[in-house]
């Protein structure tokens, strides 16, 4: 009998070329996706005289520096940023690979483009130079964010990796009304902390995860890095197969599809597969969440209050909490729903998909925003879909700015920023100091919660607004 | 990558501990491509140049005796701070081929090996001695021999240094991590043949 394996083991084994005497594995890589920050990697190839080994397996996407205000190069805010986009375009041309550039109908945030194009498939290994690559693991793939070493992958279509430990996070029970997948991952982070997944790859399981749509699972996997893990995945199932089917890079109908499907069905973790770590959450208990501090683990239910550092026994943590509260301008004991906000951002690779926009629009419909509010669809495809459903009109009539696809205010590299001292309810993934602009104060929430904040001007319990 | 065997050049002393990557390459230059061919001018940019682009004559690399320096002799914790690949490019493109210090950041050490700069760690007394000699005799040369793992100071004193066999091989053969993997290219090709026989749908 073969030893029981996790989905991660199966993908790892299938891609193993060789192992060296120091215990590192040379893994084969199915797809590489690059955004604008990749110029160093291409410079290495240029200066060392290497070529892109397999251009058909490499894709470039402009997302971090593109403008939310328009789709041309002239809309990009300065010469330096325009040059970064042009540099990626040149690298794509010289390397002979596909570039989803400005004006391309397929362009979007890289972690949306992969799934939309059908590149993200069960069982594949995909690498990007970006922390949130794990988003694409939601289809049952191994999608890694690798910082900096992708020059090697470009030249060899492989990567040396040390196999991480494995962790399973089970969310059992059933989600309540108004509880989004974002709330589930924020609750997980509050439970296990930002180091809960360090040196582990994560599989999300349990009835709450199984009941989620593929897009919802992407939101969960997206924030694996916020638990310190580069890779998160979910066992592929009928929903996954349906999601992938018919996309440009998906297996073609007929013999190819049948072969792929037969293989994909072998991927879920075996019943007795061993886990280095396992955590179980009661999904029934998860409430709509909101963060109060400068770490994604600082989430509390919206019905809760700002925590009091004096109750924290660990001195290091207490000092950290005090620093966060000082930066965030919050007092312990304040009810979360009493916190007034100045701005709202809906978008990002965490929550920029069509289902996210539908969730937000359902709350916004027939209401008016009372603070500056921005919606940026995660991809051009999402934008078109939303417009065909009339969601853009709902947002615009309520007073939202309806932007062009990109990373936008999640990381504030394209000119969209939260001014110093201002408070933003944001559907993005990081509430770090300065992340949304120097001095910005970020509260992480789900799309529906962000919409609730936009129409009430404070952090609000979306359940009070559901009609 | 250029193979590194032995090398003799003018050396410049940097007496400060904790020379960080912000001093080596200011953050605003991080988004610059190396293909602009300007990284050599970015090395210690704000210490070397005024805002108008004129040189600061007091900075040591601008002293006439040290202009041809190709070896840096530093102190403790060289190139600490935020990880910046640009930090190594500034050194290489300026012409630096060896960095001799008491300690340096691990990232900088790894990047030295990747690009073909010899990273040398010696004990504190030895690097202080080398720096003192370079101050006494500006423009003096130092020799580094990787095969022998030895550095020779201006006074002829020899200092043995440690380097792991893997890094030594990379530098001597002029192979970076890509080159090393490509030595296994037949293994990769064989894997691909087998892999795509099974995963037919991935090669359309």
Describe this protein's structure.
The complex is a heterodimer of chains A (467) and B (204). Chain A is of the alpha/beta class and 467 residues long. Helix content of chain A is 32%, strand content 17%. A five-stranded parallel sheet of chain A has the order 5-4-3-6-7, sandwiched between helices. The radius of gyration of chain A is 21 Å and the shape is globular. With 204 residues, chain B is an alpha/beta fold. Chain B folds into two domains: 6-173, Aconitase, domain 4 (Alpha-Beta Barrel), CATH 3.20.19.10; 175-204, no CATH class. In chain B, strands 4-3-2-1-5-6-7 form a seven-stranded mixed sheet. Chain B starts with 5 loop residues before the first strand and ends in a 6-residue tail after the last helix. The mean pLDDT of chain B is 94. At the A-B interface, helix 2, helix 3, helix 5 and helix 10 of A face helix 8 and helix 9 of B.
- Please give the CATH architecture of the largest domain in chain B: Alpha-Beta Barrel
- SS element count, helices of chain B: 9
Shape category of chain B: globular
CATH class value of the largest domain in chain A: Alpha Beta
Describe this structure in a few short sentences.
The complex is a heterodimer of chains A (about 475) and B (about 200). With about 475 residues, chain A is of the alpha/beta class. Chain A has helices at about 5-15, 40-50, 80-95, 110-115, 150-155, 180-190, 205-210, 215-220, 240-245, 255-265, 315-330, 350, 355-365, 380-390, 390-400, 445-455; strands at about 15-20, 25-30, 30-35, 60, 100, 125-130, 140-145, 160, 165-170, 200-205, 230-235, 275-280, 290, 300, 345, 370-375, 400, 425, 440-445.
Write the layout of secondary structure elements.
The complex is a heterodimer of chains A (467) and B (204).
Chain A: H1 7-14, E1 16-19, E2 25-28, E3 31-34, H2 39-48, E4 58-61, H3 79-95, E5 98-100, H4 110-117, E6 125-128, E7 142-145, H5 150-156, E8 158-161, E9 165-172, H6 181-192, E10 200-205, H7 207-211, H8 214-222, E11 232-234, H9 238-244, H10 255-264, E12 277-282, E13 289-291, E14 299-301, H11 315-328, E15 343-347, H12 348-351, H13 354-364, E16 372-376, H14 380-388, H15 391-398, E17 401-402, E18 423-426, E19 441-444, H16 447-456
Parallel strand pairs in A: 3-4, 3-6, 4-5, 6-7, 9-10, 9-12, 10-11, 15-16, 15-18, 16-17, 18-19
Antiparallel strand pairs in A: 1-2, 2-8, 13-14
Helix pairs in contact in A: 2-5, 6-8, 13-15, 13-16
Chain B: E1 6-13, H1 21-24, H2 39-42, H3 45-48, E2 71-73, H4 85-94, E3 98-101, H5 106-115, E4 118-121, H6 124-136, E5 141-145, E6 150-152, E7 158-160, H7 165-173, H8 177-182, H9 185-198
Helix pairs in contact in B: 4-5
């Amino acid at each position: 009998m073969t030893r029981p394996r996790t989905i991660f083991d199966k993908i790892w084994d299938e891609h193993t070329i060789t192992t060296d005497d120091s215990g590192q594995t040379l893994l084969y890589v199915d797809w590489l996706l690059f955004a604008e920050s990749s110029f160093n990697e291409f410079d290495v190839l240029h200066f060392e005289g290497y070529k892109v080994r397999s251009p058909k397996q490499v894709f470039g996407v402009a997302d971090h520096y593109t403008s939310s205000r328009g789709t041309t190069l002239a809309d990009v805010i300065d010469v330096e940023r325009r040059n970064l986009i042009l540099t990626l375009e040149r690298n794509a041309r010289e390397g002979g690979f596909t570039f989803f550039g400005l004006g391309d109908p397929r362009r979007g945030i890289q972690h949306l483009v992969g799934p939309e194009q059908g590149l993200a498939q069960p069982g594949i290994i995909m690498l990007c130079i970006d922390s949130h690559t794990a988003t694409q693991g939601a289809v049952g793939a191994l999608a890694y964010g690798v910082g900096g070493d992708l020059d090697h992958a470009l030249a060899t279509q492989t990567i040396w990796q040390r196999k991480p430990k494995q962790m399973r996070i089970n969310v059992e029970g059933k989600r309540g009304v108004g509880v989004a997948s974002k709330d589930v991952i924020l609750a997980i982070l509050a439970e296990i902390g930002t180091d809960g997944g360090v040196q582990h790859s994560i599989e999300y399981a349990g009835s709450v995860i199984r009941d989620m749509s593929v897009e919802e699972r992407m939101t969960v996997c997206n924030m694996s890095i916020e638990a310190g893990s580069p890779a998160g995945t979910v066992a592929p199932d009928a929903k996954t197969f349906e999601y992938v089917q018919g996309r440009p890079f998906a297996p073609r109908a007929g013999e190819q599809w049948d072969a792929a499907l037969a293989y994909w069905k072998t991927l879920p973790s075996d019943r007795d597969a061993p886990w280095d770590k396992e955590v179980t959450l009661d999904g029934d208990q998860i409430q709509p969440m909101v963060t109060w501090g400068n770490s994604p683990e600082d989430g509390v239910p919206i019905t809760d209050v700002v925590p009091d550092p004096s109750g924290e026994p660990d001195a290091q943590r207490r000092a950290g909490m005090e620093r966060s509260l000082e930066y965030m301008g919050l007092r312990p004991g304040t009810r979360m729903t009493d916190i007034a906000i100045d701005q709202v951002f809906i978008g990002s690779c965490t929550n920029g998909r069509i289902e996210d926009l539908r969730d937000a629009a359902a709350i916004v419909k027939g209401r008016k925003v009372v603070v500056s509010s921005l919606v940026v669809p995660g991809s051009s495809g999402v934008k078109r879909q939303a417009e065909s459903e009339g969601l853009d009109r709902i947002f615009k009539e309520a007073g939202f700015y309806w932007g062009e696809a990109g990373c936008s205010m999640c990381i504030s590299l394209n000119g969209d920023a939260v001014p110093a001292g201002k408070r933003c309810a944001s559907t993005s993934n990081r509430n770090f100091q300065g992340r949304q602009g120097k001095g910005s104060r970020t509260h992480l929430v789900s799309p529906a919660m962000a919409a609730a904040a936009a129409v009430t001007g404070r952090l609000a319990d979306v359940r009070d607004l559901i009609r | 990558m250029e193979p590194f065997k032995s090398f003799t050049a003018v050396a410049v002393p940097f007496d400060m501990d904790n020379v960080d990557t912000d001093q080596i390459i200011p953050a605003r230059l991080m988004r610059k491509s190396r293909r602009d061919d300007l990284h050599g001018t970015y090395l210690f940019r704000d210490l070397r140049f005024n805002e108008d682009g004129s040189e600061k004559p007091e900075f040591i690399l601008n002293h006439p005796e040290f202009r041809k320096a190709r070896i840096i002799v530093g102190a403790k914790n060289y190139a600490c701070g935020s990880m910046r690949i640009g930090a190594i490019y500034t050194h290489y493109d300026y012409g630096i081929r060896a960095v001799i210090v008491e300690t340096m950041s691990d990232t900088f050490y790894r990047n030295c090996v990747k690009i073909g700069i010899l990273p040398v760690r010696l004990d504190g007394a030895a690097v202080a001695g080398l720096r003192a000699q370079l101050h006494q005799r500006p423009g003096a040369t130092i020799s580094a021999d990787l095969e022998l793992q030895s550095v020779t100071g201006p006074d002829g004193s020899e200092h043995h240094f440690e380097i792991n066999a893997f890094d030594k091989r990379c530098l001597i053969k002029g192979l970076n991590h890509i080159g090393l993997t490509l030595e296994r290219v037949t293994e990769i090709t064989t894997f691909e043949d087998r892999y795509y026989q099974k995963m037919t749908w991935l090669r359309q």
